[in-house]
Every structure is written in C-alpha cells, then in structure tokens.
Design a protein that fits this description.
Elements lengths: L5 H6 L2 H9 L15 H6 L1 E2 L3 E9 L7 E9 L5 E7 L3 E12 L2 E6 L4 E2 L4 E4 L4 E8 L8 E8 L3 E10 L8
Parallel strand pairs: 1-11, 2-11
Antiparallel strand pairs: 2-3, 3-8, 3-9, 4-7, 4-10, 5-6, 5-9, 10-11
Amino acid sequence: MRIFTLSAALSLSAFSLTAAAHDHHHGHHGHHDVTDYSAQFAEAKTTTQVRAEQCWVRLLPEHVPSAGYFVLHNDGDQAMNLLAAISPSYDDVMLHETIEQDGMAKMVMAEKMEIPAKGTLEFKPGGLHAMFEKPVAKLQVGDRMQVELLFDHAQKISMDCKVNPANARQFE
C-alpha cells in the first residue's frame, strides 16, 4: 500500500531513487527496517478466526505519527501471528511496542505479536500500538478510519477505527 508521493520522490537524490527502486524500505525511515507486505495483503483472505474490538486512533498533528490501539480475539484452536497493518488513510503503518530500557520508555518494532488460541492480544497506550505516519486523508476527531491487519497463513481482517483526540487515553 506504498504510495510514493511526488514530494518524497523529489526530495531523494537520483542515486537514492535508483536504490529505492530496488529496495524502497532501507534508509527510508533511517531507524526502521520495514517489510513490504502489499503482495501478501492482496493475496490474503478475510478470516473469521480473529476479531478486533475497540479500535481507536489518537489523532496527532500531521507531522507527528498518530497511534492506534485495539484488542484482538482469537476464536480459533491455533495461535495466530499478526504480521502487518495498512490503512488507506496513511502511507506508513508500523506495529511498535513500548519497552523500558535503562529506565526510559523506548519504542521498538514489535517482533512477535502472537494471539494465543482462544486468547487475546491487546494494543494499548504504553504497550503494543500501531504507528500511523504520512497521512493521505484529512482525518478529524470523530471520523472513522479503516485499518487492515495481516496474519500468517495468508489471512487478514479489516477494522473500523474511531478517531479520537490527541489527549484520549482509551476507546471511549
């Protein structure tokens, strides 16, 4: 779901544009190594095994990434691994985890996001969260926003997320 904007293309030198054509993720964020899951999203089938509840996004000013939170329920008999997220409202969506390191809260790419069989996985402030960067839609508090989640075994779900103000701490 990567849409290469003209301004982003113009800000890259001809050399890095050539490099970007071969691997358009390395160096794009500097500190993130993002896998492109667009082909997997396209091939994935909607699953009924995983349900999402209470999806909400803390809307921040455009130049600051907005964060998204939700609860995933696995109704199946086998664990499911969450791999990636995309949204038509943002060019970049990354799954992060807030960890404590040397007494400081630090954001890292979430490595393993397993929803146990018959269990739940919660994305909440201070823990797992989705980071939404580079908005392509002008969202306002009170809007709804679509987010798709990709799981292993070529399965996906779509979530309808509530856009909350920057000071929100929970779904409501």
